[in-house]
Structures are given as structure tokens and as C-alpha cells.
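Encode chain A's predicted structure.
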Amino acid sequence: KEPSGDMYVGTWLKDKKHGEGTATSACGDLYEGHWMQDKQTGRGAYTWATGGVYEGDFVDGQRTGKGRYIWADGSLYQGDFIDGVRSGHGEKIYVNGEFYNGAWQEDRITGIGRYSWKNGDAYEGSWLNGKRSGLGTFFKLGKEPIKGLWEKDKLVDSQDDTPAEGTTLNSDST
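Encoded structure for chain A:
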């Protein structure tokens, strides 16, 4: 046990955590997995005292590689991480039943992907910072798909006979 209240049980190499081990922080966070030169590196699981859990790859103490994060509310992300944030390809299932599968950049939905709302509506196409931006198609349950150019979640140029010029379409649209 360290003066800070942190505790480590596992293998050591030259006074550094190295190999398999379990660390518990004074605040109640828990890491179980592989260590290299005092840093979480390799496969491991990190549980926050607040309820979140990450299982997957670590590099130099950061979530980097393939992994799975479960929020305290039950929402789930599985996919790529870089330096502790969602980056690359991944899917998130929200606790309310909504779902996103596609590209992430710096912890935001950015790139090509598909978001499905719990009522059956969906959008497939380009995203920027969590908003529909670029070419994409909105699928409204029971209606014809709406294809067009989107900016900040608004349809600005339709590729068919649908309304455009700033029309906001989402799961609440009629």
C-alpha cells in the first residue's frame, strides 16, 4: 500500500509494476490486467468507482486499441480507442434503445455512420461532431427515404422532391 492510499498486488520488475497485477486507487477505481514499466499496457479491465467499466487494450496507461466501455446507466460502446477516447470505428447502444454504428473521432460521432432512433427512424451518411453533415439519407418509418446534403442536422439541399433549405428532420419529425 502506498502513502496515497493506492494499492497494487502483482508482479514487479526492478521496482516497477510489470506483468499481471491489480491496482486499486484510494478513490475506489480498480485496474486488473497487464503492466509494463509501471504503466497499464496490454489487455486489462478498468472499473471506475462511479460505475463505468472498460475492458480492452491499453498502451502506456491509455485506452488504445480495441475495447468495450459500459456506462453506469448501461449504455455500451465497443470499438476503437486512441489515447483514451473513441476514435476509429465503433458502435454505441444507448440505454434508451437508440444505436449508432460508424466512425468516431476524438470521442465524437464524425465520419460515415448510421444512427437508428428507438421509433425506427434512421440516418445513414456523413456526420461531423455528432450532427448530420454532408451527404446522407434519412429514413422515416413508413415514408420514402430523404437523400440530400446536410449541415448541422438540417437538410439544406435535397436530391429528390423533398423539402430543403434548413428543414430539420429527426425522430420527432412528421
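The chain is about 0% helix and 65% strand.
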